[in-house]
Amino acid sequence: MLLRFRSPQRIFRVAGVRVGGQPGENPTVLVGTIFHEGDSAVKDPLKGVIDREKAEAALLRQDELSDSTGNPCMVDVVGRTGEALIKYLDFVSSVTDAPILVDSPSPEARLEACRHAVEVGLRERIVYNSITPDSGTREIEALKEIELKSAVLLAFSECEFSPEEKLNLLHGESEPLLMKAEKAGVRNVLVDVSLLDVASMAYAAESIRAVKDALGLPSGCSPANALNTWHRINELAPQAKKTCLASLCVFTRCFGADFILYGPVKLAEAVFPACAMADAILTYSLTSEGYEPEDKNTPLYKIF
């Protein structure tokens, strides 16, 4: 058996997608981002005007790769304003059935979009991204009023990097993230351990392992954020960025990540095959010990 955590592992369902468990028990959930800063599909980031054809093609390609590999997917939808984010949510929900992370630098925009999502019947598919150490009382009370079931807990602090410090952000003193989630009425929590650059992937990997070992909660991170700080990467080779992104995602999975925000959804082709291979190996290590997956829609049975 390649990797096993001591604590009982929590598995949450978000619109039918299972997140969490022992490595190999459930495939990695791969989350592509759309309408982020610099996305060529965005024509007006304030009003939410987009190139619908280009965006739809990227979303459908992620769905196709999810189907062919057995790795579930979600979509991280980023918007600068509430108006834009609402339009994005309406569009994405009409194209794909995947769960949707509601993401914005503005808490007000996130909350406005989440209210709209609930009004149009998307409550089960929405994941609030994210509850942070800076989330104040008003934001938490608004989330409770909206009655969302799922949220990302971003264990980020500019001064706290180690696994022990990440655990303290989650369940230490002075209103930790898990307490905020409970006050907000959130039942399904996805822990994003966060990272700053490629070198800090070491801290992130150790933190994922620590969170799952101590708390048994679904955990992951966003390797793409780290890769964007590596300014000399294109000097290595023409396809170095895509290759290294896939490598970082597999590295993260091998430390137990249950979900990975891999960056722009247009990079799905670089990530899904690599993570599916890693998932197949992890599942095989369990089957050699007598484990039999209930759902055969998993990479071990899909890609070989």
Report on the structure:
- The structure is a single chain.
- By secondary structure, the chain is an alpha/beta fold.
- It has a single domain, classed as TIM Barrel (Alpha-Beta Barrel).
- Helix content is about 40%, strand content about 20%.
- Strand 7, helix 3 and strand 8 form a beta-alpha-beta unit.
- The protein is globular and about 50 Å long.
Radius of gyration: 18 Å
Total number of domains: 1
* Proportion of beta-strand residues: 15-25%
CATH classification, class level: Alpha Beta
Q: Which geometry do the CA atoms define?
A: globular
Q: Strand order, biggest sheet?
A: 3-6-7-8-9-10-11-12
- Secondary structure class reads alpha/beta
Q: Give the ordered list of helices and strands.
A: EEEEEHEHEHEHEHHEHEHHEHH
Please report the total strand number as a whole number: 12
- CATH T-level topology: TIM Barrel
Briefly, what is this?
The chain has 304 residues and is an alpha/beta fold.
Give the topology, please.
Layout lengths: L10 E4 L2 E4 L8 E6 L7 E3 L4 E2 L1 H18 L3 E6 L3 H14 L4 E4 L3 H13 L6 E6 L5 H10 L3 E5 L8 H9 L5 H7 L4 E5 L8 H14 L4 E3 L1 H5 L12 H15 L4 E6 L3 H20 L11 H4 L2
Parallel strand pairs: 3-6, 3-12, 6-7, 7-8, 8-9, 9-10, 10-11, 11-12
Antiparallel strand pairs: 1-2, 4-5
Helix pairs in contact: 1-10, 2-3, 3-4, 5-7, 9-10
